[in-house]
User: What shape does this take?
Amino acid sequence: MTRKSGSKPPRDVPGPAPAEEPLLCVELPARQRKRPRQARSVALVEALMLTGRQILEREGRAALSVHRLAEHAGVAISSIYEYFPTIESLVAAIFEDYRREARREVITSLEKLPVSATLLDGIEMLLQSGLANLHRWLQLDSDLSVKAAYHAELMRLEMVRSEGFWTSEAIPALVRRFSSQVLVRDREKAGFLAYHAVTALPRALVIERPNYLVEADTLRLLARMLHALLTAEDLEAKSS
Assistant: This one.
């Protein structure tokens, strides 16, 4: 069919708009505004964190307000906001201290296990410490704990900048301590699987099944899974 002379060409009829890609929106924990540099500023931040930690542990998250913190620490509210824009950012910094302490404690505990201890003993000790700490932090501030779990998962998946996990040191320490009992041939692969199991699964519990953190069989099931992973013999050599 030909178009009549002088007639306008048909306009393009707009089709349906392309579907937008779904966006993942994750609320991340508030962060400390800046790091102190001078000795006086370092002392101020340490005093704020110590006071905040005492209120948090003794009276609970609801009792920790900027006015209460200023009163107990003996500082002006403006001094608090200079380093911590919100109380949540202070609690997040306190939780970072908790995680550093947990990392040091679990590695020290691994080294202090008796000579008669087994690989399974070490795995159970590591998991018991991790699950107990997650439950404790969840009780102190459940909202922040869930935000931190989401943020840590994004770091594990390399979607945001990584800051390191305590398990990145704990798993190698476990393997070193019980090297003779780790039978798996490909230790690099087993270490990779163990690392992601010990980091991702407990966070999934925090986000979806927090009650599992304190159930005894959770510890046993996770420990058996990791033990089986690290003691798996070469299946190909076994079948030949």
In short: The CA atoms of residues 3 and 11 lie 13 Å apart. The mean pLDDT is 82. The two ends are 75 Å apart (CA to CA).
